[in-house]
What does this fold into?
Amino acid sequence: MTEAPALVEGRLEAHLRARRQQGRKLLVTYVTAGVRADWVQVVQSVVAAGADAVELGIPFSDPMIDGPTIQAASVEALRRGTTPAGVLDAVTSLEVEVPLCVMTYYNIVFRAGHRRFAQSLASAGVSGAIVPDLSLEEAGEWCREADDAGVATVLLVAPSTPEDRVARICARSRGFVYGVGRMGVTGERGELAGSARRVARRVRAATDLPVCIGIGVSTPEQAAEACLDADGVVVGSALVRRVLEGASPDEAGEFVAGVRGRLDAGA
It folds into this structure.
């Protein structure tokens, strides 16, 4: 098991805490990097529409936690020749005022090397990383290098996570804690799973870090419902589907603005 050093607040956590302190419900949006030629414009549009942070998916050929929509986006991004280095090169040109996280899989981290990958994220201006197939017990070396580089490793808590493990995950997580709203892969759902709010309550009882619920948060109404107990939400598949279907950057922003407006209005 990895031991966490004294917590040092990085940009991602400081930004989300400040917005939470203002009474704002947090909105993290997911965009698959490289899915289209204008993906950078999509990111800029969703930030302008009210996203508090953006999670950038670095595409991988075997995305184990992702459902059909994000899998399709990853396949398209890879078909277009998207690489981790290319994504980070593009990120350096992104002029946005909110923190950026990357979401990818451990194969990519391991292939690059922990220190090299962490430093490349930091050099590109990335504030956080989500590596869902890297377990708490095996994350020590990566987490140390990420901490040293100033990159927050965001860890996940699932509905099935035992209470003692929730506490350990929260102690090691940086930036925010990602509460998995339902068992299964990412994707849109017709209603918010009952487990989403339960996970939020369990995690908030274990940490003062911001707690955001993702996986199965598909509509503005579901986002507001999740935020009855969570500090915020992660919205991915519902946005990515629109991008895959040809929504312009402005139209992607309109969807995010709808979620933002519903969160600001309250449940």
